[in-house]
């Protein structure tokens, strides 16, 4: 399937890689042993689920509980591309004909001012997220 249009210009880099886990402490310890440092830790619901962000150099991981770990090849849940305007990127993705996984841009209370994001589906059913960390 070829697209006539592109989303180039609506993102500037890889933002993070998303990995669900059943054992947050064990997973954090594993990545710390590789040299990653925890840069964020947030509650995601009223059931005790959490999301942790870990960074090393230019790579950030989003690791969370509540969705269940796959525990086989394919365990990475999504790749996130950094965008400075999730609303504009959403409109462009929809107009370009990508398969949208949400009907609108989503919002979460991570970081100081929250995030805005949406997901598209790739040709192998992979999830590609466009994520904006809201500034001020």
TrEMBL record:
Pfam families: Glyoxalase (PF00903). Gene3D superfamilies: 2,3-Dihydroxybiphenyl 1,2-Dioxygenase, domain 1 (3.10.180.10). InterPro entries: Glyas_Bleomycin-R_OHBP_Dase, Glyas_Fos-R_dOase_dom, MMCE/EMCE_epimerase, VOC_core. GO terms for molecular function: metal ion binding; methylmalonyl-CoA epimerase activity; transferase activity. GO terms for biological process: L-methylmalonyl-CoA metabolic process. Keywords: Metal-binding, Transferase. The keyword Transferase applies. This is Acetyltransferase.
